[in-house]
Amino acid sequence: MPDDTPNPDTPISGGHLVAKALKAEGVDVIYTLCGGHIIDIYDGCVDEGIDVVDVRHEQVAAHAADAHARITGRPGCAVVTAGPGTTDAVTGVANALRAESPMLLIGGQGALGQHKMGSLQDLPHVEMMTPVTKFAATVPDTARVADMVSMAFRECFHGAPGPSFLEIPRDVLDAKVPRGTARVPRAGHYRASTRSAGDPDAVERLAELLVRSEKPAVLLGGQVWTTRGTDAAAALVRDLNLPAYMNGAGRGSLPPGDPHHFQLSRRHAFTHADLIVVVGTPFDFRMGYGKRLSPAATVVQIDLDYRTVGRNRDVDLGIVGDAGLVLAAAAQAASGRLDTGAARRKEWIEELRAVEEAAVAKRLPLLRSDAAPIHPYRLVAEIDDFLTEDSVFIGDGGDIVTFSGQVVRPKAPGHWMDPGPLGTLGVGVPFVLAAKRAQPDKEVVALFGDGAFSLTGWDFETLVRFGLPFVGIVGNNSSMNQIRYGQRAKYGEARERIGNTLGDVPYDAFARMLGGYGEEVRDPAQIRPALERARRSGLPSLINVWVDPDAYAPGTVNQTMYK
């Protein structure tokens, strides 16, 4: 048999060492915008069979790496050049930090031999990236390249996942060293499992609290999907008859129609519950910093990061651990009880269902409205009905996506994507890029605000170039309407349109110009037919839907920053 052991004297470049380390991590694609500092990485990726997907803006590359991690459960990777290439990617990295998404950004840098001499695109990247990453460092020597790439990946999974950054000076990247002098970590041998089932005593106490509760409520947050704990979460709420609410990537943990799936009665539940279990969601602005939870309720918080537990609000029980493992262990502990309390909670479930149905009935006229301009509720109701079991829904925008959060119900786990708590606009196109590339057999449906699409919309051409079809909808009100509402609330009608009004852009024509499918809709009856035609086109598409600019989502109206 041939000896596959590499000759230790064979020279290997820094760029090829990067590629070998990426391959060991299971990375099969990098998202990038080219630059002279980083091209040896491309050369290495070709040899290692790693796809190189080139985009038109570095922010798109970073967002796509973030999305790749969310979809696949494996870390994403973006590679950008030095200086403005790296600064352009900062927003994408920061978004991944707040969204707890494991990704590695590799940035170029001027040669070490030209350090502090004013080389092309030289900036203090590490100092800039440190506040928005879990790990940021310079690779000082070619022999250390692969070792430091693996180090960066390890840090991505310490506690709650997040991004890492490495800058690699040009001479370090281009230089060659004998293969035997470079440590190239072996796949599966350089980082440990970080999964923890939590303190057994705390899990036993959680089971006891669940069994004894009369009016419990469970919030399934993004970490339920991050840890791939959706099966455990679904089993727990079904076995113990618990009402479940979902946010962020936790949406889809239960399918629509499941008797334990609740969406619109959360305020009522959190006000009247005797036990609230918050899984994988911080007490941040989305939770009113914990103030929306009844002060009389027993509150349990489960999180991957010990720093998150009890932040902004005291808790009665905090458990640090993997959401799926903790919930599975709690279900197992509760199953040993003679009475799990499931039957006792029937009236509570019925009470919440009545609140839910009343909320749907109240807005039903708007969900079915035939008004023109089109009411956003009608648009998102049509989208919800259009989604299939295989449709991944992506929301990118302010007010229009806030509408969708109340109506659109993903049919399966991992089928909802939004920016996360940083609230970054412009994630839509790069999320589509990563989602469709990672799961080509899944349909991707993306809803954009017109302002949000404009930020990264030129990479629609990247979707055309790589043959990645999706159904895109622009809710077009020619405004940054969430901000417009705030200005109106604070300063009155005379100043409501300062700095937030956009042109009446025909995004359908933009799509056609770039080789995709485009269609304009002004009649609500034409929304569904247009979506069907976009689906059948087999192309990247944009359905430009003109929506009522004077309709605001309740979530926009209730934002505390406008009070």
UniProtKB/TrEMBL annotation:
Residue intervals of the Thiamine pyrophosphate enzyme central domain: 203-329
GO BP terms: isoleucine biosynthetic process; L-valine biosynthetic process
One term under GO cellular component: acetolactate synthase complex
UniProt xrefs under InterPro entries: DHS-like_NAD/FAD-binding_dom, THDP-binding, Thiamin_PyroP_enz_cen_dom, Thiamin_PyroP_enz_TPP-bd_dom, TPP-bd_CS, TPP_enz, TPP_enzyme_TPP-bd
Keywords assigned: Metal-binding, Thiamine pyrophosphate
GO MF entries: acetolactate synthase activity; flavin adenine dinucleotide binding; magnesium ion binding; thiamine pyrophosphate binding
Gene3D superfamilies: 3.40.50.970, TPP-binding domain
Keyword Magnesium: no
Cofactor dependence: Mg(2+); thiamine diphosphate
PANTHER family, per database record: 2-HYDROXYACYL-COA LYASE 2, THIAMINE PYROPHOSPHATE ENZYMES
Protein family membership: Belongs to the TPP enzyme family.
Annotated protein name in UniProt: Acetolactate synthase
Organism name: Streptomyces rimosus subsp. rimosus (strain ATCC 10970 / DSM 40260 / JCM 4667 / NRRL 2234)
